[in-house]
Amino acid sequence: MAFTWRYENTAGEQVEPIVAVEGERAAFPNQGDAESWIGESWPALLAAEVDQVRLLEDGEVVYGPMSLHEDLPA
């Protein structure tokens, strides 16, 4: 069992981050490790032109898309 992140633009198309993100891993052994990593790394991913992510377990979507943009009050 491996958890991975799929990086997407706002249209839901898969993208690769323009720059490597420190600590980036191809797969995580459990959902908690994957979520901890995204919680620390989302600003760098956003700066690398990733707009949203999906969490996958063995290639199947667990949840998402999850926006990396902060929701600002109107």
Please write out the topology.
Elements: E1 3-8, H1 31-47, E2 52-57, E3 60-67
Antiparallel strand pairs: 1-2, 2-3
Instruction: Identify the quaternary structure here.
Output: single chain
Radius of gyration: 12 Å
Number of helices: 1
How is the biggest beta sheet arranged?
3 strands, antiparallel
Helical content stands at: 10-25%
Number of strands: 3
Q: What's the arrangement of strands in the largest beta sheet?
A: 1-2-3
Overall description:
The termini are far apart. It is globular and about 30 Å long. The protein is 23% helix and 27% strand. The protein is built from 1 helix and 3 strands. 16% of the residues are buried. The protein has 74 residues and is of the alpha+beta class. A 3-stranded antiparallel beta sheet has the order 1-2-3, with helices on one face.
